[in-house]
Design a protein that fits this description.
The chain is an all-alpha fold. Helix content is 87%, strand content 0%.
Length: 183
């Protein structure tokens, strides 16, 4: 019976303890990095929900308004079309710059963790000498974990940003084709 219990995944409390132990090893900068990553992924999810849930209705409304227009070839019609396309582009690209900025700042925050971790190692060495290997290892862990986490978050964020940007470009091109001008 104990083998069955041991095979089940850990309880959420155990997961929280593991996370908190990991965060403690990385130092306080790791919490800042986690907050930036959470904000970044919140914005990524918001963009996905917009592009999948809200934008199709917006696009259908524009297409229906365009099809109901009698004039699709005058200068005035072209100006209306360009205004609608601009509005769609603005809505599709909303928060993409913020996401890109958050992704760019993650490695910098990771480097901040490296610097603070190395300062703690040097302080420890100055106070106790180089003989306490365990304490030095803790400081080096505090120095390397934020850098690793910052790079991992940045790579995942770069991928998400690139996919969102490509999706926005495709949606904009599709709308542009839907709102075609008549010569």
């Amino acid at each position: 019976m104990t083998e069955l219990i041991d095979d089940f995944p850990a309880l959420p409390i155990d997961g929280w303890q593991s996370l908190s132990s990991f965060m403690a090893q990385g130092g306080p900068v790791l919490w800042l990095l986690a907050a930036v990553a959470a904000l970044c992924w919140l914005l990524v999810v918001e963009r996905l929900l917009y592009m999948v849930g809200v934008y199709p209705a917006f696009r259908a409304g524009l297409a229906q308004r365009w099809q109901s227009r009698a004039d699709k070839s005058s200068w005035y019609a072209k100006a209306i079309r360009e205004g609608w396309l601009f509005d769609a582009r603005r809505q599709l690209n909303r928060n993409l710059r913020v996401i890109r900025g958050l992704v760019a700042v993650c490695p910098m925050i990771g480097l901040l963790g490296t610097v603070t971790g190395m300062i703690s190692v040097f302080d420890l060495m100055a106070a106790n000498g180089a003989g306490d290997a365990r304490a030095m290892a803790n400081g080096i862990s505090m120095a390397t974990l934020p850098t690793l986490a910052g790079m991992v978050i940045a790579l995942a964020g770069l991928f998400a940003h690139a996919r969102l940007q490509k999706l926005a470009e495709r949606q904009e091109l599709s709308l542009s084709r839907t709102l075609r001008l008549v010569s």
